[in-house]
Protein 1
Amino acid sequence: MESSSSMARRMAALAAMGFQRADASPIPSESVPAAGNRHKLTVTRPSMGTLVSATAIHASRDLMEEALGQALEEMDRVVELLNRYDPASAVSVLNVQGVIQGPPPELSQVLEAALQQHRISHGAFDPTVQPLVDLFRERRRGCIPDGTPVPPPPGASPMDTPPNREVLALLDLVDPGAVILAPRSISFGKEGMGVTLDGIAKGYVVDRVATVLLENGLADFLINAGGDIRSAGVREDGGPWQVAVQDPRKTGVFPDIIPLSGAAVATSGSYEIYFDPEGSHHHIVDSESGLSPQLSLSVSVAAPTTMEADALATSVFLMDPEEGAAFIDSLPGCACLIVDRHGRQVRSARWRSAREPPTSKAGIL
């Protein structure tokens, strides 16, 4: 049997390769009694380069098993559409051919949301940086957070930094305005363009899982897809779900713990996937400079949906921390916690910590 540390390294290596589906074999579910006559059921499955877990609480174990089973099937279905590393997926067809006729509605919805996030963030979030991300993946040795190297593609030099001229040459292809969303097609206005939905698709998938659970009558659940988290209702003791914010420096001390109910939270960090031992080039790319931002270590954003939280966390990571917190304060129902490159915490006005006394102030946390 594979050890937990070995599985963690394998899953991290998959994550370093991008948004992709891993082995779909489920990990055995765990069921424990909850308060009153209710049960608590947790299922876990590798997917999207991470481990996805869903915990539900209900009086009927049969209902939970059926609902969670349907939710995982929906997750697999949507992942197969949005996985740009699967040549048969809809997004891969779009990237290779520059056009797709009759696209699945899920692709159109996520891409439309990504372009909307580009506008909301004043250009910070950009799904068309795919050529730049792929350039760094192909030319640099990938590293995962525990230092384990990911071998470069055949023929690539392990430590070959792309020359600045190559980066500049690709910047012209980074152009959300050249993405044409028509009623029955999606196309690119420039040859060689591509889109990556890695900063928003995982959140969309988690929201789809949540929708299936709600449609099946489950009101109390928590979904966690490698830090993209969606909650509903309460946990087994009747209190709000509590979520720990990942420590970007891996010291074992969480920057914060937040109460979460009927909302979502997602975290972006330079520690997740990087393409050189120094961590100077990672999976988040500035669409103007073609370089990776270095102002923050991690950004956690809480929002009404996981897709919003996912995209906003990426957007804020590209901003100055104070600018990012002010941006989140301008959006209704959103809050953020930023850990800057020096380890300093910057919080938006609506961020609520479980370590603080309850407050009557408005906010989602």
Protein 2
Amino acid sequence: MGNEKPFLVDKTVYSPQKPLIIAELGTSHGGDMGKAREMTAAAADSGAGCVKFQMVFADEILHPKTGEVNLPGGKIRLYDRFRQLEKPAEFYAEIKEYVESRGLLFLCTPFGQKSAKILHNLQPKFVKIASPELNFTGLLQEISSWNLPVLLSTGVSTLTDIEEAVEILWKKNNPLCLLHCVTAYPAPETDYNLGVIKNLSSGFGVSVGISDHSLDPVLVPVLAVTQGAAVIEKHFCLSRDDPGLDDPIALPPDGFSCMVKAIHNTAETGLDVTLENLKKEHGIKKINAILGNGIKALAPSEKENYFRTNRSIHALRDIQAGEIITEKDFAVLRTEKILRPGLPPSWAAKLSGRTAKYYIPDGEGIRFEDI
């Protein structure tokens, strides 16, 4: 291949020949330190080079009136679950220390200014931004100021969305890796359009990897490596029967180990030879379907999530017509399925002081026509 952009973290270079393999634990530990340690140990034994967590504070992500959200384990009131998963800074400091004691990289996703401040104080070596926050201008600006390597997931986004985020985040001395992703749980392998990895890398001049939500432990990760992926992220669980939000689509230790071995074998066999072997094993038609046309577009399985899982501006109280809107009256949140989307996050700095033209119900998106 030869044109891949490597990703540098803590003086280590990651490339398709030696990709960074991330076990995404998210919130599957349920806020229990014992389970977080057990999962970390299992991820280490399964061959992960990094363990990732999510620092959840419900009010940074959703409005209480969001309602039920359809997740792999069924419909739940996600705001309420997020409240249950909130942990103090000390929790993340302790698990970071344990992760690093196992020789792994610690990675965490913040979802707003509060979690970002806590994470920054922990002095991480790099940081991950989830797909729904790709358009969260304020959060991107904050993280850009840290001068750390950044992983940016690009699920449920357009090429224009990615361009705007890269313009904020990318600095010559600040490694950036885009993680190609399909925001669906599970995501069909044939929706992955893995040919886009090469195009994103050459188009933006940055490293590219994959954040994989498909169920197969090998197919998408290994194919992604043949296309130039320097980072592979996959959800990890102890058992798919566990109650974590993402456990039904995560890989248990044996599946994760299988993935790691297949990725290592790819480096030994060679990228081109591995691709040809996959075509023989799975058929050219299926492999070509997974590789797609290489043009960045919303995947069929995630189209309905656009404007919904992404961030927009929502009212935090009932705002009457004629009232002046203050910064305490709104927040940049994920919309999900019940509430209406509002203005994009870039409007947050321009909304305070404007007058409400119409009544804006608590929780609903504040639209351009409302002001």
